[in-house]
Amino acid sequence: MPRPRLAVTMGDPAGIGPELCLRLFTEDAPDFEADLTIFGSDQVLNDVSLATGLPLGGDLIDFGPVEGLIPAEISKHTGQAAHSYLIDAIDATLAGHFDGIVTCPLSKEALALAGISHPGHTEILVERTGAKRHAMMLTSAELSCSLVTTHCPLAQVAGLLTTERILEVIELTAETMTRLHGRPAKLAVLGLNPHAGENGLFGSEEQTIIQPAIDAARAKGIDLTDPLPPDTAFLPSIRQSIDAHICMYHDQGLIPLKTLSFDTGVNVTLGLPIVRTSVDHGTAFDIAWDAIASPTSLYNAIHLAAKLCSP
């Protein structure tokens, strides 16, 4: 079988993305069973190689130097560069030149300075690919979480929850986890309120919005729990019997996942017409270009993308 062809975006040039890309081609890097092409800057990779001692290597689509680049400094130029890498990688993958995309971290602040209104990778990918359904899933060996809402103020979460949106995330998660494990998935659904609302005592969203989505999913043959109290939903005994958790908002899922799997988690965008995985960490400007950033999350993201690209 041919090896999957993966486009790897360098992310924000002032962050740790460039050095992570260099680590993909060192002697101690694993065999990813995929062919990798970096979307980034030859000049930046040369500069990072000199700063870190990491060797140059691998295939590169070069976008040229980044104006006024200073390591660890957020600017509109780094935001625009990171956006350009991503857009071209999406378009090349949609055109069939690559089988999937793996992304290194970008800076939401740098994107804003560049005049780009999207808050992150997911929103850019959804718009560019024209995806009708989507969800963000973070996954690791210890835990997998899909998010019903993502980058929004906590005060807006309850108003954004709908039965239709929760069902969409449940379906996308079940499809992906069933594919990965080769068997029907078992999902846990979290409540929004303390004690999952305590039968309406602490809120009604569990009864009026979340439970109807669960009932609809069960009618489609999906195996999942009733709304679980969020403070006990991640106990080891539950995690051992569950393939993924459906979480109502960003921190509800990402706090436990990053606590358990900060260096190993992978971000997957569900529902796209192309495969996309990403590191589950930020740009880490405080350690950028110092050769100390762990590549484990990127390695895992590439392994998962290659698996998802396989028939």
Write a structural description.
The protein has helices at 17-23, 42-52, 76-94, 108-113, 121-129, 157-160, 163-181, 205-219, 236-239, 250-261, 296-309, and strands at 5-9, 35-40, 59-62, 100-103, 135-139, 144-147, 186-189, 223-224, 244-247, 266-270, 275-279. The chain is of the alpha/beta class and 311 residues long. It has two domains: 1-131 and 272-311, Isopropylmalate Dehydrogenase; 133-270, Isopropylmalate Dehydrogenase (3-Layer(aba) Sandwich). It has an eleven-stranded mixed sheet, with helices on both faces. A hairpin with a 4-residue loop joins strand 5 (135-139) and strand 6 (144-147). Helix 1 (17-23) crosses helix 2 (42-52), helix 3 packs parallel to helix 5 and helix 7 packs across helix 8 (205-219). The longest helix has 19 residues, at 76-94. The model has no long low-confidence stretch (mean pLDDT 96).
What descriptors fit this protein?
eleven-stranded mixed beta sheet; Isopropylmalate Dehydrogenase; single chain; alpha/beta; 11 helices
Beta-strand percent range: 15-25%
| CATH first level of the largest domain | Alpha Beta
How far apart are the first and last residues' alpha carbons, in Å? 10 Å
User: What is the average of the pLDDT values?
Assistant: 96
Which structural category do the helix and sheet elements fall into?
A: alpha/beta
**So how many helices?**
11
Cα gyration radius (Å)? 20 Å
Q: Please give the CATH architecture of the largest domain.
A: 3-Layer(aba) Sandwich
What number of structural domains do the residues give?
2
**Most strands sheet:** 11 strands, mixed
Percent in helix: 25-40%
Query: SSE order, as H and E?
Result: EHEHEHEHHEEHHEHEHEHEEH
Overall shape: globular
- Unreliable spans: none
CATH topology of the largest domain: Isopropylmalate Dehydrogenase
Tell me the total number of β-strands.
11
Write the CATH homologous superfamily of the largest domain. Answer: Isopropylmalate Dehydrogenase
